[in-house]
Predict the 3D structure of the following.
Amino acid sequence: MTVHKVSTAHIKSLAPREDFPILAQSVRGVPLVFLDSAASSQKPRQVIDSMSQYYETCHANVHRGAYYLSEQASARYENARITIAKFIHARSAKEIIYTRNTTEGLNVIAQTWGLQNIHSGDVILLTEMEHHSNIVPWQMLAQRSGAKLVYTPVTDDGRLDTDTYYRLLREQTPKLVSFSLMSNVLGVIPPAKEMIAAAHSAGAVVICDGAQYTAHYPTDVRDLDCDFLAFSGHKMLGPTGIGILYGKRALLEAMPPFLGGGDMIREVHLQSFSAAELPWKFEAGTPAIAEVIGLEAAIMYLQNLQMTRVAEHDRAITEYALGRLSELPWAHVIGPVSAENRGATISFTIDGLHPHDAATLLDRDGIAVRAGHHCAQPLMERFNIPATARASGYVYTTSDEIDALIASLRKAHAAF
Ligand SMILES: Cc1ncc(COP(=O)(O)O)c(C=O)c1O
C-alpha cells in the first residue's frame, strides 16, 4: 500500500465551531468527534433559531388564511423557494418542488414521469454505486412497466467505469439515466456534465441524485443540464423532513400530480379535479413550513461561507484523511485513494476487525462514524464485503479530528 505524504498544515473548521452547539459537548466523558455528516449533518444555531423564531412569531398555515400571520408564513415559505432556486441556479422558483427528502424526490419522478413515459422493454440506466433510494424506486417502476434495469459498473479502484457507461448509452439507448453526483460510500464524483450531455445525445432523460454533492460543491443545474435533481436539507446543515426536487419546467408541466389532496388543486368537483399550477401541483397537504424556513437559513449560512470555500475545505480534509489512513497498512479504503474528484466521505475496512466493532470501539473515544452497508448493498456485493466503516466530514471538520480518528483506529486495531 502506498503511503501518501500528509500535509502538515493544520486544517481548521471552515465554519465557526461555536455556531454548532451540539459539537461542544462531551460524549462518554470525551469531546465529541462527529464524522458522520454524510448520514446527516449537524445544524448551526442560525438554522435552529430561524425555526424557533418562525414558531414564536409567524406560524400559520400557508396559502390559506387572508390574515397577517398566514400572509407572513406564506411569504417566507415562497421566498425560501427563490433562495433555493438561486442556490442551484434554476431558471425559475417554479422548478423547485418541496419534498421530504431525496428519497421522496426520486419516488415522485418514478411514480409520475416514470409511469407516464417508461414502458415495457424500455431501458433504465443506473450505476452500481447508487444508494438504495436511487435503485428501489426504479425497480418498483420496472416491475410495473416491464422496463429493464442496466447498471454502469464501478472499477476496482472505486471510480465509475465511464467507458462502459458511454458504450451502454450507445448499445442500450436508455430512456432514463439516473446517477449520483457523489457516492455516499466511495466518495467518488463522476464527470456528471459529460455524462449528462452524452445521455441527452442518446435520447435519455437524466436524473441526478444530489444528496451528497449539493451539500459540498457549488451546484448549477443549468450548467449541468440535468433534467431532474433531488437532494435533502438535513445533509446540508438544514433540518430533517425537507428535501428538494428540481425539474425542468416543461417536464414538470407535463407530469401528472403525485399525491392528491389539499393545496395541489385548482378546482375539485364530485367527479373530477384540475391540478394547481407549478410548483404547488406536487405539494399536497400542509407542508413542512418551519423546515422550509430552516433550509433557507442553512442555504444562507452556506452562501455566507461560500460554496467554493466549502468545496476547498472538503478537498483539504479528504486529502488529509486519505493520507493519514494510508499510514495504516491494515486499513483499506474502498474508493479512490487520491483526493481527485472525490469528496470527504471515506469508507474503509480493517483487517481482522468488523466495521461494526470498529465503530463501537471508536465510539468509546467519542468518535462517531457509520458502519454498515450504507444503503448500498449492490455496491457491497460488487466489492464482496458485507459492510464498511465510513468517516465523513463537513464544514466543521478539522485535521485534529482526523488525527483523533487515526489514533483511535490504532488503539482498536491493537486491541484486537
Ligand atoms: C447518495 C444518496 N442518495 C440518497 C440518499 C437518501 O437521502 P434521504 O435519506 O435524505 O432521502 C442518501 C442518504 O444517505 C445518499 O447518500
In short: The two ends are 21 Å apart (CA to CA).
